[in-house]
Design goal:
Elements (H helix, E strand, L loop, with lengths): L2 E5 L3 H14 L4 E5 L2 H10 L4 E4 L10 H9 L4 E6 L3 H11 L3 E4 L4 H12 L7 H12 L14 H11 L4 H8 L3 H15 L4 H8 L1
Parallel strand pairs: 1-2, 1-3, 3-4, 4-5
Helix pairs in contact: 2-3, 7-9, 8-9
Length: about 210
């Protein structure tokens, strides 16, 4: 019997994910939570075989979540299930210790394949991502890393709002962050992308 934890803050996605898991593993026992603090509480209280993790979950939002989860439950299998671009974040989270990365746009059969692969102690990424990584190995000069890939999910959120023309205060309000936190993210974005102001940022991203 498999014990599975779904970490997802959107109720409709939780319900759909649970339905797919039940159809795939009928005897499974499935729990769900909607923020990172509750992940920690569940892992401290119970033993799980698999965590299906949305990386844009309140209280988390970066690769440090994987390390924290591993510290509590070293043997748990972690399948990241995210709307974030796989080419931009897939390898990043696998390198951080996740066992698989799956886009929320993936078809039902791919979801099932990913779950079974991860539960079978294998790593999982889509065929497109596998091919991209092979191409990167064969022709590294043609696949120079995009500096945007180095941004954390939360930094990417801030970047997207900066591109929309929002100021620091509006971004803080929209993302429910401290003003100083947004300023820190903004400074990191500028540093990682090698720009000094918003004009240079927008020009670089065109």
């Amino acid at each position: 019997m498999k014990h599975i934890l779904i970490a997802e803050d959107h109720a409709v996605v939780r319900i759909g994910t649970k339905h797919l898991l039940k159809s795939l593993i009928p005897e499974s026992i499935i729990s769900d939570v909607d923020d990172f603090d509750k992940i920690v509480q569940e892992l401290q209280a119970k033993s799980f075989d698999l965590l299906i993790l949305d990386i844009n979950i309140p209280g988390g939002n970066n690769t440090k979540m994987v390390e924290a989860i591993r510290n509590i439950s070293p043997g748990i299998r972690i399948l990241v299930f995210s709307s974030y671009d796989e080419q931009q974040y897939g390898l990043l989270y696998l390198q951080a210790g996740a066992d698989g990365y799956l886009s929320k746009e993936a078809p039902e059969e791919e979801f099932k394949s990913a779950v079974l692969s991860v539960l079978d102690n294998k790593k999982y990424m889509s065929q497109d991502m596998q091919q991209l990584n092979i191409n990167r190995l064969i022709n590294p000069k043609e696949y120079l890393p995009d500096p945007v890939v180095t941004l954390s999910p939360r930094e990417t959120d801030v970047l997207n709002l900066l591109k929309e023309g929002l100021g620091t205060a509006k971004i803080a309000e929209k993302l429910n962050l401290q003003l100083s936190t947004v300023s820190t993210y903004k400074a990191r974005i500028f540093e990682k992308l090698g720009v000094k102001n918003i004009v240079e940022l927008i020009t670089k991203l065109k």
